[in-house]
Specification:
By secondary structure, this protein is mainly α. Helices cover 64% and strands 4% of the residues. The chain folds into 2 domains: 75 residues, Winged helix-like DNA-binding domain superfamily/Winged helix DNA-binding domain (Arc Repressor Mutant, subunit A, Orthogonal Bundle), CATH 1.10.10; 145 residues, Serine Threonine Protein Phosphatase 5, Tetratricopeptide repeat, CATH 1.25.40.10. It has a 3-stranded antiparallel beta sheet. Strand 2 and strand 3 form a beta hairpin.
């Protein structure tokens, strides 16, 4: 992250880390490794400067030696962030929307589930901390974000197909393939939707392109399900 003396530069990623892990306690060595991975030397002083800078940003009126409402510590050298009911992050909204969407889907409430997943996708589409995309400490959170995004799209695709919303389902399937060109469920959905729309040519083209992509990119043969679909598409009606 650069010079450990640059407290202001390190304060931003430290705040993001705290917001992603509210009330979770971390030792000073863990936070130092987060900010300056692999750096040798006196990182403790750098962490002290960084936390001082962060406290000043969050609480400009804080008097000298006055404890922070948000950046807390204990005698054993552990630090944590206390939101104190003053902070909101979209992480909380995403978690709540995910629970709401899953509950509605399992209860068979399709309209409510679709609405919740669409709101969820609006958050996911904003991306996850793009300026920290190369910082290893945030990698697990990025992975969770990406998996959540993919899962929301898949569930929304299934819900739209069940409800007969062909255009919306096709949009979801296309978005999934944009991120994962090897998604068999999305590719199969596109083929099925073309068939339902009466476009046999579009169905055949999509299916053959997908099978060719699997073979050329991955060296993978089509699954029995894909072969069965190919036979169905090619059989005159």
């Amino acid at each position: 992250m650069g010079d450990p003396r640059g407290g202001r530069a390190s304060a931003r990623p430290l705040l993001k880390w705290f917001l992603l892990n509210p009330r979770q306690k971390f030792r000073d060595i863990e936070l130092s490794e987060l900010l300056w991975p692999g750096r040798v030397g006196n990182r403790a002083n750098g962490l002290h400067v960084t936390q001082h800078s962060l406290r000043r940003v969050l609480e400009p009126e804080l008097a000298s030696r006055q404890p922070s409402r948000f950046i807390r510590s204990d005698p054993s050298g552990r630090y944590w962030f206390d939101p104190s009911d003053c902070w909101w992050t979209d992480v909380d909204d995403v978690a709540q929307l995910s629970r709401t969407a899953c509950a509605a889907r399992r209860a068979g409430e399709s309209a409510a589930a679709i609405a919740a997943y669409e709101r969820l996708l609006a958050y996911y589409d904003q991306g996850f901390l793009p300026e920290e995309m190369y910082q290893d400490a945030f990698a697990p959170f990025r992975t969770t974000h990406e998996r959540g995004h993919e899962e929301a799209l898949i569930q929304l695709l299934r819900l739209h197909r069940q409800a007969g919303h062909l255009y919306e389902a096709l949009t979801c399937a296309t978005r999934i393939l944009d991120g994962d060109p090897y998604s068999e469920e999305a590719a199969t959905s596109v083929v099925e939707i073309h068939l339902e729309q009466g476009s046999l040519t579009g169905a055949i083209s999509q299916l053959e392109q997908f099978i060719r992509t699997l073979h050329e990119d991955l060296g993978v043969s089509p699954s029995p399900e894909l072969l069965s679909l190919r036979e169905r598409v090619r059989t005159p009606r």
